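hey so i finally got around to running the thing on that chain from the lab meeting. sorry it took forever, my laptop kept dying and i had to restart like 3 times. anyway pasting the input first so we r on the same page abt which one it is
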Amino acid sequence: MQKRFHRMGAFLNYLLEKKGPHSIHSPFIYDFSTKVLQNHTNLKGYAKIEKARKEMFSNRNVIETVDFGSGAGEKQFSTYRARVSQLAKARSSHIRYYKLLHRITEYFKPETMLEFGTSTGLSAISLATGNPTGRLITMEGCASVSHVASSLLSRLKVDNVEYAIGNFNHVLSANLETVKQLDLVFFDGNHRKEPTLNYFHHCLTKAGENSIFIFDDIHWSADMEEAWIAIQKHEQVTLSVDLFQFGIVFFRKGVEKQHFVLSM
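ok and heres what got predicted. didnt touch it at all, straight out
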């Protein structure tokens, strides 16, 4: 209940603070807003995202899942059985955010991408299809959930994705060793302050000037908002964008440090 009230208050603040593209004085963020955020073209790649979402929402198979993130509460992890459709609905964002992930990768063409939290594969398919020549490494704590996602992407012929299974604290370092630079990272695996900041700092070691870091559920709790504020203020972050659901940071050099609250 406390988190629900927090999100309601955060959303009201967002509505009061958000700006349209014409109030943006950064040329880079203006282009990002008009060409990506406000792009309402029905892109070809959306078809696979919509098909994947429909399939996952109707999948009645029951699997045993392990949760290492905020869903485990104070425990290190929790296990339970659930239908794939239940997991997909509980862990999914609105489809417009998956389409946004697709537009971001289609526009910026990141070569090497990393995802925290494969879940049922909807964000992975959105990222991977935006740039089919790029490489996406997607990490998932639960093997049975990862199998659901990999099977889905295989059926839809999305073949530029690599799967890493295990607790992020154990598999992250090994995966970072396989890349020279992270061009895009999507953080959606543990909605708590300390783990989020820990993963952020690890990924910073592979960030370049053109890298993009995307954080999901930045207003999910006061704890996550604190993490988001700390990330905005980090000395390597020069531009940050609050879309309420997503927080996006850039590392562009030679620009004034600025924060934007935008609509899409």
